[in-house]
Amino acid sequence: MFVLILCSIFCGILAGMGVGGGSIFILITTMFNIFEHKVAQAYNLIMFIAVGIAATIFNLKNKKIDKKLLKKLVVPTCIGSITGILIVRAIDENILKNMFYCFMIIIGIYEIITSLKNIINAKNNSE
Predict the structure, then answer these.
(1) What 3-state class would DSSP assign to 77?
(2) pLDDT, block means (10 residues), the chain with 127 residues
(3) Rounded to whole angstroms, what are the CA distances from 49 to 22, 53, 102?
(4) How far apart are CA 51 and CA 49, in angstroms?
(5) CB 25: neighbour CB atoms within 10 A?
């Protein structure tokens, strides 16, 4: 239970920073066999609600959210969320886990390549 609490705090911090703490939460809790993949996803979504509400309030107060754009995004986001829920219910646990891990690897590779490009561009611009 202590590991789960530490994991939740760590992932909450990352999520609050917009770094994708939920994906990390799923990865850590499934790697250490704390949860099955679908259960980890369910807890991630619960955490996402808390982080989302807090971040939204903070960003609205600091006028960092365009309310007109927000209104346009709410319905498509809800449609996408409901579609995702229906898809997850139909996918086998092992297939879902492998799809998730492949997605994480692709994102990781993309981030490394992007970072390297930025480093090279910054170095070229400073010369």
Answers:
(1) helix
(2) 86 77 85 90 86 86 90 91 89 91 90 93 87
(3) 11, 6, 25
(4) 6
(5) 26
Alpha-carbon span 84 to 89, nearest angstrom = 9
Q: Which residues contact 74 (CB under 8 A, 6 or more apart)?
A: none
Report CA 113 to chain centroid distance, whole Å.
20
∠ at Cα 44 (43, 47), nearest 5°?
Answer: 90
Q: Where are the domains of the chain?
A: 2-71
CA distance linking residue 55 with residue 69, whole number of Å? 16
Rg for the chain (alpha carbons), in Å? 18
For residues 56-87, one letter each, b for 16 or more C-beta atoms within 10 angstroms of the residue's C-beta and e for the rest, the string is eeeeeeeeeeeeeeeeeeeeeeeeeeeeeeee
Nearest-angstrom CA–CA distance, 28 and 5:
12
pLDDT at 20: 75
What's the pTM value of the predicted model, to 2 decimals?
0.70
Q: What is the pLDDT of residue 61?
A: 92
Residue 84 host element (H or E) = helix 67-90
